[in-house]
Write a structure and sequence with these properties.
InterPro entries: Phage_phiNM3_A0EWY4 (IPR011088). The protein is of the alpha+beta class and 211 residues long. It is built from three helices and five strands, in the order αβββαββα.
Length: 211
């Protein structure tokens, strides 16, 4: 049972960590090489697409999606999608897809004369399943070595840690004050019943031997 308990604990926290890693904003220092739009037909990977732009009548069917092609400081290629999140999940309430695409287009540059930018996004990149992180914001920065402090992530993770700590503390207090005494009483009752049964068996055995 101990191993089963730890398996469930690890699975739970692994799930929580995956959701947070996918949902929380991440910041990449990139050079925008191109911006474009193409027709997309979400299939088995539809969970990793957001929704059509606000004001359109398209849901998860075939639609046009903006993309932002970039190169990171280490010259690695990274492609981002640019979709509205609207009122859905994750709760970024993003409605400015077209404006963001215009800003990204304005920051395009070449390797010979790079213009570095900080691109904020959420999500993962997986080439096999054609999954792209969703761009949230972009702004120009001085260079590829700029320091970024993820204040939003720090605040959210601190609040979540405080929330889970409060739940855990209350559960421990509840278990100590309410559950443990009941279990102790049950254990004492079972021990008393066992002792009584053993005593009765002993008396019965002595009665048989006396006969």
């Amino acid at each position: 049972m101990v191993y089963v308990k730890w398996v469930f604990i690890l699975l739970f926290w692994g799930f929580v960590g995956s959701v947070l890693h996918y949902t929380l904003p991440q910041h990449d220092i990139v050079r925008v090489s191109d911006t474009y739009g193409k027709r997309v037909d979400p299939g088995a990977n539809s969970w990793f697409w957001a929704q059509a732009d606000a004001g359109t009548d398209v849901t998860m069917g075939s639609r046009d999606v903006f993309f932002i092609q970039t190169r990171r400081a280490g010259d690695d290629v990274m492609v981002y999608r640019n979709e509205d999140t609207g009122w859905g999940w994750p709760p970024y309430f993003k409605f400015d897809t077209a404006n963001l695409q215009a800003e990204a287009s304005d920051l395009r540059s070449t390797a010979a004369d790079p213009q570095w930018a900080m691109l904020t996004h959420y999500g993962w990149r997986n080439e096999f399943f054609s999954i792209y992180p969703n761009a949230i914001a972009i702004r120009a920065v001085d260079g590829p070595d700029v320091t970024i402090i993820p204040w939003v992530n720090i605040i959210i993770l601190t609040l979540l840690a405080a929330f889970f700590w409060a739940i855990w503390s209350r559960w421990r207090r509840f278990k100590r004050n309410r559950i443990n005494p009941v279990l102790a009483d049950m254990s004492e009752g079972l021990e008393a019943a066992g002792d009584s049964l053993a005593e009765k068996r002993g008396r019965f055995g002595r009665w048989l031997n006396g006969r």
